[in-house]
Design brief:
The complex is a heterodimer. Chain A is mainly α. Helices cover 75% and strands 0% of the residues of chain A. Chain A contains seven helices and no strands. In chain A, helix 2 packs antiparallel against helix 7. The N and C termini of chain A lie far apart (45 Å). Chain B has a single domain, classed as 434 Repressor (Amino-terminal Domain) (Orthogonal Bundle), CATH 1.10.260.40. Chain B is globular and about 30 Å long. In chain B, 13% of the residues are buried. The chains are: A mainly alpha, B mainly alpha. Chains A and B meet through helix 6 of A and helix 3 of B.
């Protein structure tokens, strides 16, 4: 087993990124408000829409290529590498929720990462969440039908389409909040 | 024109009478200023609890502040 590629690099790179991020957030910003700790509905839906379009493009490009590279990446790779990716995601979520946004886990999961300040904001988030979940279900159903009837040749395209759906749902959620006048929030 | 099946209110009028800003009222009843603005514009109908808090602030019964147009 190549220790450098399978254990050292997958652990050192995420830890390095996280460490660099902490240095930026904690020391350079000194409690200032910025994009790193502020939710802005407008920029969030625009970014999510942009990412969704990019992944839709990837899906279309990889549609006809019989490309299965993404699936073997997880199937044939080292378990250590997969575990370190999972560890990175968990540690990153902990840092983002507890240290950067300074939220409780309850707020992070139940209020989709937002902290409503009163009943009106709670209603706004509830409506946007309902819309977000409904659109996710519809798009996943659409993807299921496509996969069922078109016999998708590319597994990479399937994975990319799921990522596209996640970004489009986030865009719909934030767009709904933006339209209802939800304020910028740290 | 008064819209049917809507709830209008006298909050703006009462604030002026009590010499209160939107921010003052928001702080007293524990909501944001944006929420007071939305209620005053009849864009948002407050919960019963918030309605009662507002009524308590102006020392009036709820039905004298919020008027249902059936």
């Amino acid at each position: 087993m190549d220790i450098l590629t399978n254990i050292v690099l997958p652990l050192i790179i995420p830890i390095g990124i996280i460490f660099f991020w902490i240095v930026i957030v904690r020391n350079w910003t000194k409690g200032k408000r910025g994009w790193w700790n502020t939710y802005r509905a407008r920029s969030d839906w625009q970014t999510s829409l942009g990412m969704g379009v990019i992944f839709l493009f990837f899906s279309i490009v990889s549609w006809f290529e019989s490309n299965t590279s993404l699936v073997p990446f997880f199937q044939a790779g080292s378990r250590w590498r997969d575990a370190s990716i999972l560890l990175f995601i968990i540690v990153w979520q902990w840092i983002y929720v507890k240290k950067i946004r300074r939220m409780s886990w309850r707020s992070a999961f139940l209020n989709v990462g937002l902290q409503p300040r009163d009943e009106r904001e709670t209603m706004m988030i509830l409506k946007a969440t309902q819309l977000g979940y409904a659109s996710t279900v519809l798009m996943l159903l659409g993807l299921y039908l496509i996969a069922l009837f078109l016999n998708m040749p590319s597994k990479s395209s399937f994975v990319f389409l799921i990522v596209t759906i996640v970004f489009f749902s986030k865009a719909i959620f934030s767009y709904s909040l933006d339209r209802s006048g939800y304020p910028d929030q740290s | 024109m008064v819209e049917r099946n809507k709830i209008s209110n006298r909050i703006k009028e009462l604030r002026a009478k009590f010499n209160m800003t939107q921010e003052d009222l928001a702080q007293k009843v524990g909501v944001t200023r944006q929420t007071i603005i939305s209620i005053e514009k009849n864009e948002y109908v407050p919960s019963l609890l918030l309605g009662m808090r507002i009524a308590q602030t102006f020392k009036l019964p709820v039905e004298e502040i919020f008027i249902a147009n059936f």
